Amino acid sequence: MPKLILAYSGGLDTTTAIKWLTVEQGYDVVALNIDVGKSREQPVVESRGMAAGAVKVRIIDAREDFVRYFAFPALAAGALYQDTYPLATALARPLMAKLLVDVAHEEHASAVAHGCTGKGNDQVRFDVGIMTLDPSLQIVAPTRENAMAREVQIDYLRKHGIDIPWGDKGPFSIDENIWGRSAEAGVLEDPWQEPPPEAYEWTRSPEEAPAEPAYLEIAYQHGLPISIGGQAMEPVAMVEYLNDLGGRYGVGRIDHIEDRLVGIKSREIYEAPAATILHQAHRALEAMTLSKQQIRLKKLIATEYAELIYNGLWFSGHHQDIAAYVASTQRHVTGAIRLRLQRGQATVVSRKADESLYDRGLATYDASDTYDQSAAVGFINIWGLQTRVQARTQLLGELPETLKIAMPGREA
To answer: Is the pTM higher than 0.85?
Structure first.
């Protein structure tokens, strides 16, 4: 029988996929579980996979690689999809695609599979990543191809002697990893409906958060966070700590109408305490250490970077070029940021950097002022020269119709 590597979460969709791929498609299925943190199915992954008929269940702890090589580079880039979403799910998919291909090579498999539907973004991220890394591998998507309802999947498994107590589905569709949690469907599909309390799991309501604020100091080196409160922390430990602390203070709740890659607008509820805190602090440090021109261009680059991640183009030359630019911008982004967490907000209250472009001697209005105010007159004369010349030669007298400003009660 040909061998296939399935990206296996331990949930109903991919458990059904194991049996379907074995019985209907004739594959020996190796179930590959890639742990990127926060999986509620993790304790039962191996037993479920073997019960469903996998010839082997392989589990890879990919949390360190995920944070260090995917989440943190996106943080350094300032990548937030549509200026809002920290890209938790989108960042995990290229790592999963790579590990699927790697394990396929190790196991001498001819095909790989995932549990994505035909309606979402993840199918694109998986398929494009896999096809880029190894176009010879066949890609199978059982959920996309069969679109079985939940009850049909459970009946299918029972028909083949697999009776797993799945429990209640819950009112929402959930995806989560260490960088963030998303909830959609159910009442959230009505954008006029306020998210009910049960839509959130990681964060307290701001009204229920402690009244007294918490302060924390995050240090960065070359754009990457390295310590909290002066104590060095590994990436996974840092993100877990900030998720816990930020969640207790209600930080990181996001209610977003999002443009999916396939052309659908969807309403998404995200919880990302650590990502929210780290992005906030990183922006504040860049404001001190990057020039005005660097900040302006980097905002455009951040938008493009977020788009390529969201759109499944991690393994592209375009990404390599953008990553090189981002790395260059972070050469001097080293320093510390102090934040206050209180009632759903993470607020920067102080900052310091050895290579800061902020010069107090130039900024101050007290006696230590080093700025030559008399130089401003000459600067203004030169700066305004272009407008004075244009006004004298082109704009004096009656304005042409195309430049007239419409005024209330007057013709344009």
So the answer is: yes
